Amino acid sequence: MNAVARPDARPDLHRPGVGAVLASTWRVATPERQRAAVEAIRKAWESREWPDLGLLSYSVYIGTDGDTLLHYSQWTAPEAYDDFVRTHRDDRNAEIDAAVPGIERVELRRYAPLLRSAVLDEESAGALPGAIAVVEVDFDGPDAERQEAWVEAVFTAVADDAGKRAAHGGIGAHFHRSLDGTRVLNLAEWETEQAHIEWQAEYAPLSEAWRRVHAYPGLVGSRVRRYTPALSLDAGV
User: Fold this and answer.
1) Percent of the chain with pLDDT over 90
2) What pTM did the predictor assign?
3) What is the C-alpha to C-alpha distance for residues 137 and 221, in angstroms, rounded to an integer?
4) Distance between CA atoms of 130 and 140, rounded to whole angstroms?
């Protein structure tokens, strides 16, 4: 069977059977090339049989910076991705590169299945985000317990301002820890990009709980990039 595009262009983050998540970034330089790359990805995947090697879904988000694409894929196990690389990746990438030459593949990181999710209020449950604020937090060395403890600290801080955040367009947040123990990935869902921009500018949390999050021991860097859902493919079963 061939790949099937989900109408809401986003993956089921709570899909059963996920044993690993792969997240990677491409740089393509312009908004026009972003859109062309997404269309090339769609064509390359929809014209081929779905690779039945433990791949559960493959999704692409367009960066609001006019340059980047974020790729998010769900697998039954990390080894399933390695099998895909050996047998199915090159022909797809070759077709995409022929359509959009000069793509820079910046980084690929491996993550454990979803660690925790937060929905800001009951009215937010099931809402489709118009924008995703992708937060990457890096620590000074591998420590799975520290990754999980930092996420718990975030949940404590979120509990203090969930109502205010929801009132200004926040929907929810979903956390993964990297398999190498050094990074946490947060997919924070917002109604629109503008809602997140306004929150950062006017309502950025300054509580003691958030200060503890930002000054957590061993935290060495963090970055936030905004994306919009563009394409999500699975086997359609």
Assistant:
1) 78
2) 0.94
3) 6
4) 33
